[in-house]
TrEMBL record:
Residues at the catalytic site: 361 (for fru-6p isomerization activity)
EC number: 2.6.1.16
Catalysed reactions, as listed in the record: D-fructose 6-phosphate + L-glutamine = D-glucosamine 6-phosphate + L-glutamate
Organism domain of life: Bacteria
Gene that produces this protein: glmS
Provenance organism: Brevibacillus borstelensis AK1
Protein name per its UniProtKB record: Glutamine--fructose-6-phosphate aminotransferase [isomerizing]
Length: 366
């Protein structure tokens, strides 16, 4: 059932080219290079009228939402707030008749996410769900559903569900931009082409895991680790950090790199491992100066850069290159080596990768 892999997690990591392809599937008009979302019950005019979005989810699904926020705001200019469901459900959110709520849940059964959905519906807010399970509570109760077609995810650590959720968010953001007219047809076509290249690019990353396996071995006895990045790289850092602590039990934190100076830099000393993501062109120089700061304190830095980058290697101890794509889509690629880092570290420590202690696959109680 593990298809020759030693764990479900590794199998699911390798299923990502397919999961991404299936989630895009019929939602792309090949000729027009546009997005089609026939599953939406609302008209284009109804959708275009929304001027405020909440994205509510837990854990990894919330991290997918953080990528979604940046992308939605960039492409549609509609403000988006991302909230963890366990907080959101007890808040007094500001709703108007132009507020749309998006809930994201792989299982569709997470108690807090479901409760937030119910609260919103009670207030008359339309809820769009992104979920992986047909027939789940979230799928049944939401007004609108965009399914991720990742197939069953068994490992507690979510991998292919995350990448599929991010794809669903890209598709929704593009469609929303299409109906709002905030992106030109040519701009949409360009992103669509980049989207279609992602499965092959994920495949290329998965074909060269050795550098990441070696770095995992080097950190297997570490007591603490830092992930740093800016913008979308920060959103991905949060996911990389969660994945690592969840299955390797090594303490780690993700920081927006510009925040280091405001406290965390005090923790950086000789040989503290730092994973530094520098894949976003517009903030690249700023990121490099943050890397230089941690290097100066003795950190052992693994940098992430785009293919073709020759500069980062000068400032770090090792570099993982990810294939280049349009900057908004890079998270889908950057997250793959981070998932592998968590996996190989957990495996090197001899832990049960698929069933980490204290955790359940689906959190159906508060
Ligand atoms: O099924 P859901 O997407 O609602 O689950 C949310 C979280 O419990 C889940 O993503 C959790 O954070 C994962 N174990 C992370 O790998």
């Amino acid at each position: 059932e593990k298809g020759g892999y030693d764990s479900f997690m590794l199998k699911e990591i390798y299923e990502q080219p397919q999961a991404v392809r299936d989630t895009m599937g019929a939602r792309i008009d090949q000729e027009k290079k546009q997005v089609i979302l026939p599953e939406l019950n609302m008209s284009d005019a109804e959708l275009a009228a929304y001027d405020r979005l909440y994205i509510v989810a837990c854990g990894t699904s919330m991290h997918a939402g953080l990528v979604g926020k940046d992308v939605l705001e960039k492409w549609t200019r509609v403000p988006v707030e991302v909230a963890v469901a366990s907080e959101f459900r007890y808040r007094d959110p500001i709703y108007t008749d132009k507020t749309l709520m998006i809930v994201i849940s792989q299982s569709g059964e997470t108690a807090d996410t479901l409760a937030a959905l119910r609260e919103a519906k009670k207030s008359g807010v339309r809820v769009l769900a992104i979920t992986n399970v047909v027939g789940s509570s979230v799928a049944r109760e939401a007004d609108e559903v965009i399914f991720t077609w990742a197939g069953p995810e068994v490992a507690v650590a979510s991998t292919k569900a995350y990448t599929s959720q991010v794809i669903a968010l890209y598709l929704f953001a593009l469609y929303f931009a299409q109906v709002k007219g905030t992106l030109a047809a040519a701009e949409i076509a360009e992103v669509v082409e980049h989207l279609q290249e992602l499965p092959a690019k994920i495949g290329a990353i998965l074909a060269n895991v050795e550098p990441i396996r070696q770095f995992a071995q080097s950190i297997q006895d570490a007591t603490s680790l830092f992930f740093i990045g800016r913008g979308l790289d920060y959103a991905v850092s949060l996911e990389g950090s969660l994945k690592l602590k969840e299955i390797s039990y090594i303490h780690s934190e993700a920081y927006a790199a510009g925040e280091l100076k405001h406290g965390t830099l005090a923790l950086i000393e000789e040989n503290v491992p730092v994973v530094a993501l520098a894949t976003q062109p517009d903030i690249y120089e700023k990121m490099v100066s943050n890397i230089v700061e941690v290097k100066a304190r003795g950190a052992h830095v693994l940098g992430f850069a785009l293919e073709g980058d020759r500069d980062l290697a000068k400032s770090v101890d090792g570099v993982i290159h990810v294939p280049a794509t349009t900057p908004m889509l890079t998270p889908i690629l950057t997250v793959i080596p981070l998932q592998l880092l968590a996996y190989y570290t957990s495996a090197a420590r001899g832990l049960d990768v698929d069933k980490p202690r204290n955790l359940a696959k689906s959190v159906t109680v508060e």
